[in-house]
Model the fold of this input.
Amino acid sequence: MLEITSLRPEDPPLIAQAFTDIGWDKPEAQYVRYLDEQTADDRPVLVARVDGTFAGYLTVVWVSQYPPFREAGIPEIQDFNVLPQHRRRGIGAALMDAAEALIATRGRIAGIGVGLYPDYGPAQRLYVLRGYLPDGRGIAWNGMNVTPMQQVTVDDDLALYFTRDLGSGAGRRS
Done:
C-alpha cells in the first residue's frame, strides 16, 4: 500500500540509510535541514512509503533560487528521488500529484528543473508526459542561464527548467 506523508522527525536517518545502501551520498544532515525548513513552512517534504517502507520523496520550495521562478513567484519541485527498486510502480507520479496539489493551494504554476545527462532521462520523460513545458530560457547551471559559448560542467547543477499550468488540466491523471 502506497502512503504519501510529510517528512517526520524519525525519517532522516532512515532515508539517509536507504540511499547509503544503494551507494548514493545523501547525508542525514540534509533531511534534518529539510525537516527544519518544513517546520518553517519554507520547504514541504513529501515522503512515499510502500507498506511502511521508505520508497522516495520530493520537496517543494516556495521561493525558488532559480531567478525566473523566484521573480514570478513560481514554487519549484526539487530533489525528487524514488529508490530504484520502487521505480515504474506509480510512486513518482503519486509524489508529483501530491506536490502539484500542494502547489495549487497557493498558485496556478508549478516549476521544476531537470538534469541533462542520461540518468535524468526517466524524469525528463515524466515531466513532459505530465504537461510540463520548457520555460523557454534555455539551460542553466547553478541556477543561472547559460550563454552561447559559455563552458559549464555537465553535472547535477546543469538543468533545463520547466513549468506547468496546474489549472489547464494538461497531463492530469484521472
Notes: The radius of gyration is 16 Å. The domain at 2-165 is CATH 3.40.630.30 (Aminopeptidase). The chain has one domain: 2-165. Strands lie at 2-6, 45-50, 53-61, 76-82, 109-115, 133-141, 144-145, 158-165.
